[in-house]
Every structure is written in C-alpha cells, then in structure tokens.
Amino acid sequence: MRVRSRENWIFLQEKGFVVLSIQDSSEFPSNKFYDELWSVVSYPSIQLEKEHIMPTSTVSPPQLDPQLEYLSKSGQTFITEPTLLNGNLNDFYEANGYLVVPNALSMLELEQLRDETLRICRGERGVIEGVVPAPPEVDDAEVLRNYLCIHFPHKISDVMYKYLATPKMVGALLEIIGPDVKCMQSMLFIKANGKPGQAWHQDEDFIPTRDRSLVGGWIAMDDATIENGCLWVIAGSHKHGLLWPLEMQNDSRFDCADESRGFPYTDADATAVEVKAGSIVFFNGYLLHRSFPNRAQSGYRRVLVNHYMSASSLLPWKLPEGKEHMATADYRDIVMVAGRDPYSWKGTKEIAKPMVRPSGEGGCEKWGARREKERAADQVNM
What we know:
Structural class: alpha+beta
Number of helices: 9
Helix content: 10-25%
Largest sheet: 8 strands, antiparallel
Radius of gyration: 23 Å
Low-confidence stretches: 1-61
Shape: globular
CATH architecture of the largest domain: Sandwich
Distance between the termini: 56 Å
CATH class of the largest domain: Mainly Beta
Strand content: 15-25%
C-alpha cells in the first residue's frame, strides 16, 4: 500500500496492513517510524477506503537503512577463518583496509574481560570521569546499561592493560605495521541493547599519525552481529589517503561523534563484519567504518578497541606545550607493545584519564563539532 500522510499511515497500521512506501519521507523523520513500518502484519482481506490508497506509479519505495534491510533476511555470515590474500594477512589488509583474526582469545580470557568490564562500570577500579560507583544492591545489568563506552580503561585496570598486547594481537600488528609498535588509546564499548552506534568516520580524524600507520584492534567480547551492532566497513576506502570532511549529525541511530561526509561511496559499498566472540578485527586509520544500534532483544555487544601505530613516527595528538613546535609535537602517553621505542629519550607522560563517552541520550552539546561551534560562537560574542 502507498499512503499520503501520517494519519493514513496510522489508519493502515490500525487495520494491520504493511505499508510499502510513502509519498514524502520527510513527513516521517523518525527512524522509529521505519522500524514500525516494517514490523506490521499484513491482512489483505481488509478493505480500505479509496482515498487511503495511491497509484503505485507516483511513488518509490522508502529506503531502509542497511541494518534493517539485512535483518529482514535470514542467517548470519560470521567470518570464521583468517582473512588472507596470497596466503598472508598483510596483503589482505593492504587491499581492503581491514582484516579479521578469529579465535584470538580463549573462552577463559573472554570471561576475564567481561568480568573486568563489569567491575570497571561499577567503579571498583578507580575514578572514571562520568562513572557513578554502584552499590552492591544495584543489578549488574542495570550497571552495564548506564554506559556506552569508556575511554582509556587500561589506565586503571591491569586486565585491560594486559589485553593491549596479546600474542595474536601483537603478531598481526608486527605484520601490518612493522617491528616497532606503540599503543596510545583503549576504548571499552559495552553497548547494551537499545544503545546507539557510531556514524561513518575515520580514526585518523581523531588520532593523527604522521606516517598514516594508525591501526585499530577491535576485540569482540560477544558475538558481533548485524542485529546487535557489528562493525561495517567500506573495503578499500583507505586507499585514497584522504580524510573526508567531518560534520555534526543528529541521527538518533548514532552517538554524538561527528560523521564523515563527501566520500565517493554509498551504503551499497559497505560490508558488515560479523565475527564470533574472541575474534580481533584490525582496521586502517583511514578506513571508513561505522556501526548501527544494538537492536537485539537483550544482551550486549562488548568490545575492547585499542589503537596502535608505528613507534618510529611522531604522534601530534595534542597541542604542543611550552617551547615545543607543532612540527615536532609528540604525544608521549604511550605503551610499547612490540620492538623498541626510537624516542625513548623523551620519556613517557601520564596525560589521558579514563572518561565516559557521551552516548547522545543526554545531549551532545559538549562533543565534537558541537563543542567547536559553541567555542566559535563564544569568540564572536566576546
């Protein structure tokens, strides 16, 4: 059926019809509407008044988002073997900008990570900006639902620190980065059902390496599926060597982070990376990637994401201090995970502090482009 307006849509919904398209999608800005639209049961025996139906030639079908489209199909497509090209990981990584190493962690290791995630969210591992310590009587599930993502958990957790450099993690990094590897960030995603995903972006937008060697190591603590918000990538998009413009977005499917725009790809070019718990997904800092909300009925899509780069490159992540020039700026809050540090003479610093990442549920006024826009407005009004 085709409908002209929200009132007619409601009429059809009450009658139990599936609405296949609408005349003007701007009348229905909510993604929730599309969720409802495709969940109605059809009863073709019901008769409708003529004014509620439009000729099929005057409208086109609505565009479902890729997650909903895939969910309408049956089955899952887990990557259960290492992604190889010409028999090695690096060739696949160079061609596609990502790779998968299944079975990188044991069930015992996964249980350790999940248990530590709960302890961190309960506030048992120390102070985290945005985390409210939970008393014993608060249910574990309620505690985990409070947080979408915590940055730098390795700063307060020996367990998270340990998983910066597991054997299979380091083995793959040596192959795709080189002999000297350092880590500068960890992010712990809990992503309970109903929590948002993250819009298209490139990690080098946020962590700028000088030699384009940034690599994300995405450790799946649960099976990551299309339904619960797995990673989506545009294979090969890293080859441009460009950082596409970032703009703020207000899509309720995603958290507060800004979205990459203007790149020469469409949703049809994206690949869902469904992996089993214990897998590690590696991806290039220039690779376009995103995730959708966790639309599962229950549960989590827990992931520990660590970021790595060549230790031979400087890391101009923060503005220089004192007499230091931007040309030689080098963020030194790092952990060496392989090889040697050519800049060890600089020493290391404790800079980053654990913090909760805004999910968007409480507003995004202080995040990303919104924060910069606010600062610019403040300057004008001074």
